[in-house]
């Protein structure tokens, strides 16, 4: 199969490099006005929330059991970074959680994107796969977690299957929508240039669907992360969710809060990462 | 069955297209259209919205099947789209993930033409449409007129027998539009391609056509056909405004307009 213009390695690396530089320089350039003002306001708001928290804790408005002091949260963060708690230190828990979600994500992409593309392009694929996927998609993963445990036990595999299922549905459905979103004129143009069905699919439909595919990936990884943490709270010996639940059982609220903050920060970073990848790989998004 | 002569590039034989939708009245988009076009002609189909001109172009392009009748291009019956009939769309048919050169080379890539030859052809075609040096730019950085020129270059690069243009200048502002009309005529003269263009602009049609075909709707049919050569006058004198302001031009334009408005000659 001939290399498509998009996947042509030299063009692709040149494109990625130039987009990476563009994105990097836009963070340093002067023209950021409105965006800057909003970011400043958000930053001040966050500082404000921390200050209010500090005041509430300092003057013991609420018992420390309910709202620990920010300082003790930070202390626990430093402590757990080196010392083990609930089966590992902070780094080990984070790595355990990330490994689960990223491997499930990789499988969901490897399977979901081709299947979604097939569903978009082929009415038999659509007819066969639509019912099961649309059926299980709105069900919260925690609802079918017990079934997964009955089938696969409480080991790593079961957790990864659960997270995989949570991520698979949005990725597949977005890939399928991506195929439908390619403008018919572009497809017709491909055929008028002498393209075969396969060529039009690979060179026009697939790149055309990429914006939606990346959106699906971004939704998927967020959804996978929330599912993971909940799954760890049910049956795990490591991971951030496990650490938080363990601490809650012993009423060590500062570890709970610390864990929640770490979980939230990682979710934010994952989302940022996906947006960044999107800017590099799909620079034409939103520009018709 | 029309006798196809060997120098007739495009033959339309008793073509009819009807659309039947459940619960809606049948639409007679085209009714028994017949015409034969010689190689090198610049045919313009003019008509108001709904007269069937887009449907006609879609059948010739192979995007739309005929209900009755046939279309032949170079004595081959048309059933599917193909590289022998290049199409220039009104807008949004370029690939935003490819730069200008790669867009133009797309058809060549489909034919498995080697890279160096592809680049040679795309560079030459870029010069032809006046976009030399723009090869590396992304599509979305270009103005509407420039994008249409890329669309034109892309269709030309694959060397089709006939160029089909679907209201190619409809989305452009008036000034750019005039410039593009002249560009298309100059390219037509240089490449000697057969062009089949549809438009709803009377002035554009009268200016550009060697054969002007006026269609009226319900059912879509050919009402009148003119042989014109204002485009040749332009090629000779190079001044479009002058050609468009002669008395003959104005007379033909008014006649065409009244045919469209009244539905009969």
What does the radius of gyration of chain B come to?
Answer: 18 Å
Q: Please write the string of helix (H) and strand (E) elements of chain A.
A: HHHHHHHHHHH
Indicate the proportion of strand residues of chain B: 15-25%
Question: Which segments of chain B are poorly predicted (pLDDT under 50) over 5 or more consecutive residues?
Answer: none
Quaternary structure type: heterodimer
Give the overall average pLDDT of chain A: 87
Major protein interface: A-B, 27 and 32 residues
What is the mean pLDDT of chain B?
90
Kindly describe this structure:
The complex is a heterodimer of chains A (288) and B (265). Chain A is 80% helix and 0% strand. The longest helix of chain A has 38 residues, at 197-234. By secondary structure, chain A is mainly α. Chain A is built from eleven helices and no strands. In chain A, α6 (141-152) crosses α7 (156-181), α8 (184-192) packs across α9 (197-234) and α10 packs antiparallel against α11. Chain B has helices at 53-61, 100-110, 115-128, 144-157, 174-191, 202-208, 230-237, 240-244, 247-262, and strands at 8-19, 27-38, 42-46, 68-73, 76-77, 85-88, 162-166, 194-199, 211-216, 221-227. In chain B, the strands form two sheets. Chain B has a six-stranded mixed β-sheet with strand order 6-7-8-3-9-10, with helices on both faces. Chain B has a four-stranded antiparallel β-sheet with strand order 2-1-4-5, with helices on one face. In chain B, α2 (100-110) crosses α3, α2 packs parallel to α4 (144-157) and α3 crosses α4. The longest helix of chain B has 18 residues, at 174-191. The chains are: A mainly alpha (288), B alpha/beta (265). Chain A binds chain B through residues 2, 5-6, 11, 183, 185-186, 188-196, 199, 203-204, 207-208, 210, 282-284, 287-288, and chain B through 61-63, 80-83, 85-87, 89, 92-98, 102, 105-107, 109-112, 138-140, 154-155, 158.
């Amino acid at each position: 199969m001939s290399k498509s213009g998009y996947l042509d390695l030299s063009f692709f690396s040149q494109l990625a490099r130039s987009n990476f530089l563009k994105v990097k320089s836009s963070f340093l350039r002067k023209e950021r006005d409105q965006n800057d003002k909003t970011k400043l306001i958000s930053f001040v708001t966050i500082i404000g929330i921390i200050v209010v928290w500090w005041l509430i804790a300092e003057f013991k408005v609420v018992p420390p059991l309910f709202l620990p002091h920010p300082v003790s949260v930070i202390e626990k963060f430093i402590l757990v970074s080196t010392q083990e708690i609930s089966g590992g230190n902070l780094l080990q828990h984070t790595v355990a959680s990330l490994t689960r979600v990223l491997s499930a994500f990789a499988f969901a992409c490897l399977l979901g994107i081709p299947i979604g593309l097939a569903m978009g392009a082929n009415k038999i694929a659509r007819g066969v796969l639509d019912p099961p996927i649309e059926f299980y998609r709105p069900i919260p993963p925690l609802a079918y977690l017990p079934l997964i445990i009955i089938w696969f036990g409480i080991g790593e595999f079961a957790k990864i299957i659960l997270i995989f299922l949570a991520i698979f549905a949005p990725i597949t459905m977005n890939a399928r929508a991506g195929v439908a979103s390619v403008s018919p004129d572009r497809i017709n143009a491909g055929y008028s240039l002498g393209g075969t069905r396969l060529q039009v699919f690979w060179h026009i439909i697939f790149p055309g669907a990429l914006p939606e595919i990346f959106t699906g990936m971004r939704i998927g990884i967020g959804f996978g992360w929330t599912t993971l943490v909940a799954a760890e709270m049910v049956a795990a010996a490591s991971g951030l969710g496990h650490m938080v639940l363990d601490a809650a059982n012993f009423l060590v609220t500062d570890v709970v809060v610390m864990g929640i903050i770490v979980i939230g920060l990682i979710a934010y970073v994952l989302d940022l990462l996906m947006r960044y990848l999107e800017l590099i790989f799909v620079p034409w998004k939103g520009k018709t | 069955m029309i006798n196809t002569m060997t120098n007739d590039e495009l033959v339309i034989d008793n073509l009819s297209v009807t659309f039947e939708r459940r619960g809606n009245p049948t639409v007679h988009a085209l009714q028994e259209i017949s015409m034969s076009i010689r190689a090198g002609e610049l045919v313009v189909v003019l008509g108001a919205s709904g007269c069937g001109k887009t449907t006609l172009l879609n059948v010739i392009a192979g995007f739309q099947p005929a209900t009755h009748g046939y279309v032949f291009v170079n004595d081959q019956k048309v059933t599917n789209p193909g590289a022998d009939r290049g199409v220039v769309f009104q807008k949004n048919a370029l690939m935003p993930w490819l730069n200008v050169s790669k867009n133009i080379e797309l058809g060549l890539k489909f034919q498995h033409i080697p890279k160096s030859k592809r680049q040679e052809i795309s560079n030459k075609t870029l010069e032809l449409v006046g976009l030399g040096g723009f090869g590396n730019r992304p599509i979305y950085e270009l103005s509407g007129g420039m994008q249409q020129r890329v669309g034109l270059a892309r269709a030309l690069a694959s060397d089709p027998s006939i160029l089909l243009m679907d209201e190619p200048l409809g989305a452009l502002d008036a000034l750019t539009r005039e410039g593009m009309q002249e560009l298309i005529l100059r390219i037509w003269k240089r490449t000697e391609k057969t062009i089949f263009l549809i438009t709803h602009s009377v002035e554009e049609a009268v200016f550009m056509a060697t054969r002007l075909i006026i269609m009226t709707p319900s059912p879509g049919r050919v009402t009148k056909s003119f042989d014109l050569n204002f485009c040749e006058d332009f090629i000779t004198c190079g001044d479009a405004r002058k050609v468009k302001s002669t008395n003959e031009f104005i007379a033909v334009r008014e006649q065409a307009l009244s045919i469209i408005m009244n539905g009969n000659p």
